[in-house]
Amino acid sequence: MKWDEFFVTGDPLIYGADVSIGLTVIGILFYLTYFKKWQWLWREWLTTVDHKKLGIMYIASAVLMLFRGGVDALLMRVQLATPDSKFLDAQHYNEIFTTHGTIMIIFMAMPFLIGLINVVIPLQIGARDVAFPYLNAVSFWTFFIGAMLFNISFVIGGSPSAGWTSYMPLAGNELSPGPGQNYYLLGLQIAGIGTLLTGINFLVTILKMRAPGMTLFKMPMFTWSALITMIIIVFAFPILTVALALMTFDRLFGAHFFTLQGAGMDMLWANLFWLWGHPEVYIVVLPAFGMFSEIISTFSRKVLFGYKAMVWAMVIIAGYSFLVWVHHFFTMGQGELVNSVFSITTMIIGIPTGIKIFNWLFTMYKGKISFTTPMLWSLGFIVNFVIGGVTGVMLAMAAADYQYHNTYFLVAHFHYVLIAGTVFSCFAGLIFWYPKMFGYKLNEAIGKWVFWVFNIGFNVCFIPQFILGLDGMPRRVYTYSAASGWGGLNMLSTVGGFLMGIAFLILAYNFYYSFRYSERENTGDSWGLGRTLEWATTSAVPPHYNFAVTPTVTAMDPLIQMKRDKQDVKPKIEDIKKIHMPDNSGVPFFMASFFFVAGFGLVFEWYWMGIVGLIGVFITLIIRSFDKNEGYYVSEEEIKETERLTV
Amino acid sequence: MFKRFKPFFALGLLLSVFFLGGCSNYIVLDPKGPVAAQQKDLILYSIGFMALICVVVYVLFTVIVIKYRDRKNDDNFEPDHHGSKKLETIWTVIPILIIIALAIPTVTSIYDLEKAPVSASGEKKEPLVITATAVDWKWIFSYPEQGIETVNYINIPKDRPVQFKLTSADSMSSFWVPALGGQKYAMPGMETKLYLQADHTGTFSGRNSNFNGEGFTHQIFDVHSVSQSDFDKWAKDTKSKAPKLSKKQYDQLMLQGEAKKMTFSSTHLKWVDHAKDRDYAVKTRERLGVVPQNPHGSKAKDANNPEQDSHGVSHSH
Ligand code: HEM
Ligand SMILES: [Cu+2]
Ligand SMILES: [Cu+2]
């Protein structure tokens, strides 16, 4: 391999990216060294096993990926704004929509939600941490390294360009030669390990570590949604793992599972992909439902309407999510009966979703609604998500889908679900729990600007795409002719896209502004309306052990019950006992780094490097196995001091 | 507060106006044959229900958000109001009814679309058979009965069903003529069937709509709908005047790249049926010494590389 193949060359955009990546790295290294922050970084972050810190790192990475995926999106929108545009060529456009889709789903939506789950769930169920804190660190670092491996593809070796669905035989060696597609396979495989471990970890955490008295049907709705999401992850992710492994065999070792030659079965890939891919949609939307439930109930000052129905709706959605995958390829010619069955199962899954919408509406009924920014995002969600939902039912009607399939109608639909559902919930949740993470709120006035600019931009961007779809504009085309008549609506759509970009910049400014100027919180219940245990901590940002004394739960919204009983959240001094906590560990970080070495080697088919990396991973596993890791105790004195309790 | 949410509400209304009002301009809602017409009817029928759902939700939303916003007077405030069997039953039963109302025409349409459409005059005509083969990034059409072959265009008789036998020489593609009806995949090593029919004469654009790499955007073809007599004349002229398709020429078509419109007086079906022979194109490329190129490799970057000629216009790396 020559150097000009190793580094992507020949495109000014890429050179620009090279320079900015270089400068950012130098800037960070300089900052860490000049302000002597290396030790702090290592002790507080790289080796931490604290769920709150891991959650913050998840969220920070996700925001970064939102930026990357957003830049991709805007590059595409620039290219499509005018007919016959020469801004991007076909290959470049194909790479960009592939990385945009993959990054947004795998490296933005999921980690953002998993980050919020990490920060909130252990607090919400009154636990000290997750069931397996060390494993949690492994999850984060494998996700992070998978994301980095995928991201460097655009400057080293070239990005994948077969779409985030990577249909075979297109994604095989015959039609997509070069390292690009290998980045997809290995990046997702490594990050997938982390997701599967998160699934197991939180499943056990929620089932086994709830505070005394919190029965399953007293769990907050976000905890329920996380529990069900984790069950879906545990069942769905192994399918992806196997499918990716099979395609990796095809590409690296000449196997013929899905290839053109040797009687491969390309349709098998499509089935396996969507057998994971549809549940994946619910993995990124159920936690969103959970967060909206919490926020709407909190800011309406009312208990959730139809709690049991909400839970059962999610259980049904989770089950059904495995029975609808064929709706992604009604046009594959599987016959009338199969299409009819999957049309109907898909429509049925709309019912529990509809039920939830009405439950949210009636949670506000007879409430006292305050329009804080998290609430605004939740209200915006209801209004916009309905459009995503009804167009979803339209797509479920197979006979009509033959016309919508592969068009901008579909693109508009899934952005209405993914943005109005997932992204809105991430913003809402981040703002809602921001004081839990950092001890101050994001500025509300700036936040409202973000909300309105983003919402208007979002609708201006995607409503025209429904019409473009009905006018026959296919998805994934890199350009179109002036004669098609699609120019005007595409330009409008691009304007909307840039409005969303501007909203993102205002949000970024809000992070800075609030860090400098926001009032610091001094109680655990920052919004004054908290209902669940995460707001029942003694300080705004809980200490690393979360609760000095594990709370006892007697009612569904435990903090509301405590407020009614005039019970103080401050622990009684005689209840304080020493607390056992896990040790920090640098092993997960090194394990993931070895995964990077292995993954990078396999991408370029440098097998010696792959083997070295895997041996490294194996060594870290052995080190961990012989590490007694007994943890340590936080002494009573230290707890009393932290909680400011005096005798 | 009402003012703030007005834009959403207006947007919802606007959406239905766009869909219902301007339909005749949008290709999918402006059908030129019975298949597309049936699909359009189904689409409009479903949009009716969807608009209804949107209106119900938006009206409820607006009323609740205005009425129960935080005000001084809180007579209506009931923090423990947590459910109502009656309401919950209503919003479970109504969606079920809506879904039944949508499922019935969906299923009947699914079954109808797999049968040859009935022509406008009501008589049953024998369908014309055309084999459509997708090859990166062109369409090859064979008329087995007429013994002729075209590239990137077809002529079809109006008012007569056409049965397309779809297959692919390499990637998974999708055959779509939106003015005439919905799409279906064309896949290597297998055959799928799609019925279409044109009610009018005219030229309709068709394309591959399933992404398959660099030349995807330009993998388009034209459908000329003509009268039966014009069609017969064209087929006869083609059979007698057009050049024969040579195997060498056909193998050149197997290389990745775009192609011009072509017409031949013989078909490729005597050498290869891609529905049975999955890897003919790949083997042909190998035989002709065309090696797949990494788009970021040094070969692909060399503009003078002869292998790149077949890639057509789009590549500039
Ligand atoms: C800033 C707002 C966004 C804009 C302007 C935007 C724009 C686009 C565009 C232009 C495409 C390519 C359409 C095509 O050529 O077929 C696309 C595809 C896609 N987008 Fe987005 N997008 C945005 C946000 C998101 C988010 C938040 C997600 C997921 C959480 C997402 C997921 C996807 C996926 C999965 C694809 C399909 C990729 C593929 O075809 O392989 N997008 N988006
Ligand atoms: Cu799906
Ligand atoms: Cu097939």
Please provide a written account of the structure.
The complex is a heterodimer of chains A (647) and B (317). Chain A is mostly helical and 647 residues long. Chain A has one domain: Cytochrome C Oxidase, Chain A (Up-down Bundle). Chain A is built from 21 helices and two strands. Chain A has helices at residues 3-6, 12-34, 38-46, 51-81, 90-124, 133-151, 180-208, 221-253, 266-283, 286-300, 307-320, 336-364, 373-396, 398-404, 408-438, 444-470, 487-517, 558-564, 587-603, 607-626, 636-642, and strands at 579-581, 632-634. Chain A has a two-stranded antiparallel ribbon with strand order 1-2. In chain A, helix 7 (180-208) packs antiparallel against helix 19 (587-603) and helix 11 (307-320) packs antiparallel against helix 12 (336-364). The longest helix of chain A is centred in the first third of the chain and has 35 residues, at 90-124. The mean pLDDT of chain A is 92. Chain B is of the alpha+beta class and 317 residues long. Chain B has a domain at 128-288: Cupredoxins -  blue copper proteins (Immunoglobulin-like). Chain B has seven helices and eleven strands. In chain B, the strands form two sheets. Chain B has a six-stranded mixed beta sheet with strand order 8-5-1-2-3-11. A five-stranded mixed beta sheet of chain B has the order 4-10-9-6-7. In chain B, helix 1 runs antiparallel to helix 2 (34-67) and helix 2 packs antiparallel against helix 3. Chains A and B meet through helix 5, helix 9, helix 11, helix 12 and helix 13 of A and helix 1, helix 2, helix 3, strand 7 and helix 6 of B. The structure holds protoporphyrin IX containing FE and copper (II) ion (2 copies).
